Amino acid sequence: INAEYMGEARKLWWSTFLSLLGTCGFFAIATITANMMMDKVSRRLCNVTYVAWVCTFNLGFLAVALLAELLFPGLGSPQPSVQRPQGKGTKAASTPRTLLEAFNRNLLALFLLANLLTGCINLSIETLDASKGLASIVLAAYMLIISAVASSLDIRGITLKLW
């Protein structure tokens, strides 16, 4: 991979980041407007305000994740390297695997584990009455457990086929 290609790729990712940010801003304004002029945000009704809020939140999360990757490339990558398949006119490159690749390798098994953890959390904690601090701790632990399992399976080269 040459430096010119990497420079162009980074420009494209910065452009994508700015597009995400702009779209997030649009949905934030739509959420505020709908909240003032229509209904309050309601997950149960799944109203327009809720849909706009979900789009704002998720696009904002993607923008922050992309910004972190742009500012700190390869920050969360596990140590083992993997040989990328060699295409026409390209050289095989040894690059670190990412957490996304680790998730994709065992996606169904991790989805089922996440559902089991969600059930355990719902049975052990009164989630509607939980404080913001407790909810944040539970979510952080939940993400840490799922990510640790994904990384551990990937580092050991384990692929779980459940079909």
Can you give a write-up of this model?
The protein has 163 residues and is mainly alpha-helical. The protein has 5 helices and 2 strands. The chain has helices at 3-37, 48-71, 99-105, 107-124, 132-155; strands at residues 81-83, 94-96. The chain has a two-stranded antiparallel ribbon. α1 runs antiparallel to α2 (48-71), α3 crosses α5 and α4 (107-124) packs antiparallel against α5 (132-155). It starts with a helix and ends in an 8-residue tail after the last helix. Residues 78-84 and 89-96 have low confidence and may be disordered.
How far is the N terminus from the C terminus?
37 Å
> In sequence order, what are the helices and strands, one letter per element?
HHEEHHH
Beta-strand percentage range? under 5%
Main sheet summary = 2 strands, antiparallel
What shape does the CA trace take? Answer: flat
Whole-number radius of gyration? 20 Å
What do the pLDDT scores average to?
78
Give start-end ranges of low-pLDDT stretches: 78-84, 89-96
**What level of helicity do the residues show?**
55-70%
The total of beta strands comes to 2
Q: How is the largest sheet built, in terms of strand order?
A: 1-2
Structural class, judged by helices and strands?
mainly alpha
**Helix tally?**
5
Please tag this protein with its features.
163 residues, mainly alpha, 2 strands, 66% helix, 5 helices, 4% strand, single chain
